[in-house]
TrEMBL record:
Gene3D superfamilies: Peptide methionine sulfoxide reductase. The lineage of its organism: Bacteria, Pseudomonadati, Pseudomonadota, Gammaproteobacteria, Salinisphaerales. Keywords: Oxidoreductase. It holds the Pfam family SelR. InterPro entries: Met_Sox_Rdtase_MsrB, Met_Sox_Rdtase_MsrB_dom, Mss4-like_sf, TAT_signal. This is peptide-methionine (R)-S-oxide reductase. Residues 51-172 form the MsrB domain. It comes from Salinisphaera aquimarina. It is an enzyme of class 1 (oxidoreductase). NCBIfam families: peptide-methionine (R)-S-oxide reductase MsrB. It comes from the Bacteria. It catalyses: L-methionyl-[protein] + [thioredoxin]-disulfide + H2O = L-methionyl-(R)-S-oxide-[protein] + [thioredoxin]-dithiol. The gene is msrB. SUPFAM superfamilies: Mss4-like.
Length: 180
């Protein structure tokens, strides 16, 4: 069973038991008015590496979060203070997950976003705290990013609460896709 099949089974099992299921109120009607969501034209190509390869490539704290679904201490990430234009990418594989325009100060101590780049996250239900929570991962490498909660700002009402160590910030001026 691959990662996508596991996430699909976990989501289906949670829905079958009547647990909180992630839905996007705008899913059928498109993005909320005044909210243009970046999207991808094609499916994200996955990256598969062995545990030892990940352990060798990632710093110990990033490995713990991205590969073992750990959580960093609140207030420990320098990304909390980032207000520049750019994008937040997966620290494991570099896939863009959040444009800086989606970041906001949630007061939780973790970088928080009200939406994500369509197709760049995958979801599953997490029972580690006994109550079900919706966990999200990078769609390319499967790296754990954080959890999504229904207490965010408009236009989505969602809060993507991310571990800073699972992200890297690339300023707009440094991105390869900038027009010349």
């Amino acid at each position: 069973m691959n990662r996508r099949q596991f996430i699909g089974i976990a989501a289906g099992t949670a829905a079958g038991f009547g647990l909180w299921r992630f839905t996007r109120s705008s899913a059928s009607a498109g993005p909320p008015v005044g909210h243009a969501r970046p999207s991808t034209a094609s499916e994200v190509q996955t990256v598969e590496k062995s545990d030892s390869e990940w352990r060798e490539e990632l710093a110990p704290d990033a490995y713990k979060v991205l590969r073992k679904e750990g959580t960093e201490a609140p207030g420990s990430s320098a990304l909390n203070a980032v207000k520049a234009k750019g994008e937040f990418q997966c620290a494991g594989c570099g896939l863009a997950l959040f444009p800086s325009d989606y970041k906001y100060e949630s007061g939780t101590g973790w970088p928080s976003f009200y939406d994500y780049i369509d197709g760049h996250l995958e979801f599953k239900t997490d029972f580690k705290m006994l109550m079900p929570r919706k966990e999200y991962h990078c769609a390319r490498c499967g790296g754990h990013q954080g959890h999504v909660f229904k207490d965010g700002p408009d236009p989505t009402g969602l809060r993507y609460c991310n571990n800073g160590v699972a992200l890297k910030f690339v300023p707009a001026d440094d991105r390869d896709d900038q027009p010349a």
